[in-house]
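agent> Task received from the user: take the single chain below, predict its 3D structure, and emit structure tokens. No templates, no multimer pairing.
agent> Plan: (1) validate residues, (2) run structure prediction, (3) serialize to tokens, (4) report one or two observations.
agent> Step 1 OK, no nonstandard residues flagged.
tool_call: predict_structure(input=
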Amino acid sequence: MFTCTGYAARDAATPLAPFTFERRDPGPNDVLIEILYCGVCHSDLHTARNEWQNTVFPAVPGHEIVGRITAVGSDVTRFRAGDLAGVGCMVDSCRSCPSCQEGLEQYCTPGFTGTYNSPDAVSGGHTYGGYSTHITVSEDFVLRIPENLPLPAVAPLLCAGITTWSPLRNWGAGPGRKVGVVGLGGLGHMAVKLAHALGAHVVLFTTSASKIADGKRLGADEVVLSTDPEAVAAHAESFDLIVDAVAAQHDINLYLGLVKRDGTLVQVGAPEQPLPVAVFSIIWRRRNFAGSLIGGIAETQEMLDFCGAHNITSDIEIIPIQDIEKAYARMLKSDVKYRFVIDMASLKS
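)
tool_result: status=success, residues=349
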């Protein structure tokens, strides 16, 4: 074991503050990563504030991790010291259930081991995330980072990127397909970029007129104000796929009506309350209303390689760790374009 420093929430009402804890030394199959940058996901805030009523305190958030490997175990074959590496939302799974065997560890039947706030089967206690100087992870859950991409802007790909890539790939976004994206935030802006790069005709739906120009800059072929009934109606029954990235309450039926027969609306945003679905909207057009959760390790690597080949990264604002509470407050007001990333060098200052 070795001493690691980070930022932690001690309880749901106290601001995050410096925290010292123990990490395990690399075992035969582990890599040790010096964390250089960590993205800030809304899940971090949910956990720090115990909004999902499952936080084990103290909690060290962070699951959009990029850094450099400083040591590897004796049996590690895919990485060596000095390599760039990434860690996303998972650090382990059962590895034996059907989903794990198919490379879909995010759907692990007993449940995957989250990068933070999960029972730690290796070290005991619970896992601590990327708001810290180092992390030790099995090489099977470590990602290769393209050398040509700016490292800070890669970090959000490990959550926001894969969360939108997985449904785009699973439901066949590509040339000749019309893809809608609902909401232009951390997830939505990555969905627009990736769908555009995959060759789909991309239509962004937003409630904010101020985001029209940005939506087109990011790759949307069209931007529609969802508050304009006529503009929305013009797209009725025309989409092969809609990716809904909105995490607040909204009218899901408005968008279901835009899906063509046998098309799919996939929900990746997670509102706190259930979304009422008009069943006849689905029945009459044999539409699919689906959900999708992050992505497996293999498809996450596929996404990173694709982003490297197409020079795709997240739009970010870099902050010091000392500003994390300010970042959370701004995130709640959607005052970021489009993801905060912590420069972990600030933890040493």
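agent> Step 4: summary for the user.
The longest strand covers residues 30-39.
agent> Done.
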